[in-house]
Amino acid sequence: MTVTAATKTQMLAAFTADAISLHNGDPTAAGTANEISGGGYVRLPPVYAAVDADTIDITPLDFSASAGQAVTHYVVWDGATVKDVTAISSGDTSFNASGEFTLKSASISLT
Q: pTM of the predicted model, to two decimals?
């Protein structure tokens, strides 16, 4: 049986998460390894765009940390539960000289 687009939209509309973390290496399935630190870094709450078929986009998030740190992954959290671990494969991949990093492209997908 194939899940309909309406069902996928309903599932994503019920999705909850309260934080996004950034990592400079594989965070592992537990989501806790290699998390960025220093320079005022904190996890940020996600803000979601509208659900589109089988994907919900997270609006860009501006993080602060020590300049020059690499960013290879982000993790989506709901409390202490890891909801998603994703490798960053394009765009900026490190904090700039001012210690700023914008996570521009993040989403949750049912595909």
A: 0.87
Banded pLDDT at 1 (limits 50, 70, 90): low
Per residue in 6-50, pLDDT (tens digit) is: 887 788 878 888 999 999 999 999 999 999 999 999 999 998 887
SS (H, E, C) the chain: CCCCHHHHHHHHHCCCCCEEEEECCCCCCCCCCCECCCCCCCCECCCEEEEECCEEEECCEEEECCCCCECCEEEEEECCEEEEEEECCCCCCECCCCCEEEECCEEEECC
Identify the burial level of 105 via C-beta atoms within 10 angstroms of its C-beta, where 0-12 means exposed, 13-18 middle and 19 or more buried. middle
Tell me phi and psi for residue 87, to 5 degrees: -80, 140
Distance CA 34, CA 25 (A): 5
CA torsion angle for 36, 39, 45, 47 (degrees, to 10)?
Answer: -100
Q: How many other C-beta atoms lie within 10 A of the C-beta of residue 55? A: 15
